[in-house]
Amino acid sequence: AQTVTQSQPEMSVQEAETVTLSCTYDTSESDYYLFWYKQPPSRQMILVIRQEAYKQQNATENRFSVNFQKAAKSFSLKISDSQLGDAAMYFCAYRSPSNTGTASKLTFGTGTRLQVTL
Amino acid sequence: DAGITQSPRHKVTETGTPVTLRCHQTENHRYMYWYRQDPGHGLRLIHYSYGVKDTDKGEVSDGYSVSRSKTEDFLLTLESATSSQTSVYFCAISEYRDGQPQHFGDGTRLSIL
Predict the structure, then answer these.
(1) Distance from CA of residue A3 to its chain's centroid?
(2) Alpha-carbon distance A6 to A18, whole Å?
(3) From A44, A91, A98, residue closest to B106, measured CB to CB
(4) B62 in contact with A at a CB cutoff of 8 Å?
């Protein structure tokens, strides 16, 4: 079974600075997908960024980028120019391909709470 | 935003009572999921559906049942609620295409006294 580990329960960053959230996972599959979700106090689960394992290029979405190290099974999220609105819980998630019969379920890490200070 | 509606948004009930949570989607997506979110655990899969009347168990399915009689609706039932089922419940949907992310509803906060 796949497992996802987020070893940082809480992180803090100053506004306009850069912060990196860590995620590692364990799998025997060679093809899979990785996601970062953001959960602000409103409780919504918002997709931040996704990465296909077969792509070597790291995904980027505006101020958000990932460092995907497939051999090390590491998938960290970098937030540049942090803003107050980035304060939230961030979850890393793993998904198998659709053809594996697992209905593309997500396996989540336990989350990292990010504080943004002035 | 994906068209996902969870109802109710909040519910307080007593131990031993039956509870049904509803998830309604307007996206015609094949897959639907129920998760629960608890501190220190992230989100854990309860049950999922891969089509009308096609459902299967997730990692924390004990004490829960589901039904999907229409593409757009996925119901989660607690036959006899227990205090350990106090949680925030999320519904999610996804298309049957590789790499497509799951989109989540706004969650239901369920308190069982």
Answers:
(1) 14
(2) 18
(3) A44
(4) no
Chain A residues near residue B42 by CB distance under 8 angstroms: 4, 6, 91, 108-111
* A98 CB-near residues (< 8 Å, 6+ apart): A104, B96, B97, B98
Q: Is there a contact between B56 and A98 if contact means CB atoms under 8 Å apart?
A: no
What are B112's two structure tokens?
Answer: 């069982």
Chain A residue with the nearest C-alpha to that of B57: A102
Q: Is B89 on the interface with A (CB under 8 A)?
A: no
Q: Tell me the Cα Rg of chain B.
A: 13
Is the sign of the CA dihedral B99, B66, B75, B52 positive or negative?
Answer: positive
Q: d(Cα A34, Cα B105) in Å, to the nearest integer? A: 20
A106 contacts chain B (CB < 8 A): yes
Cα A5 from Cα B38, distance rounded (Å): 16
Tell me how far CA of residue A118 lies from CA of A11, A83, A85, A101, B82, in angstroms.
Answer: 14, 9, 12, 47, 43
As averages over each run of 10 residues, the pLDDT of chain A (118 residues) reads 92 97 94 94 92 90 96 97 97 80 78 96
Chain A residues in contact with B45 by the CB 8 A cut-off are: 105-107
Q: Residue B16's pLDDT is what?
A: 96
Q: Dihedrals φ, ψ of B101, to 5°? A: -75, 160
Q: What pLDDT is attached to residue A56?
A: 85
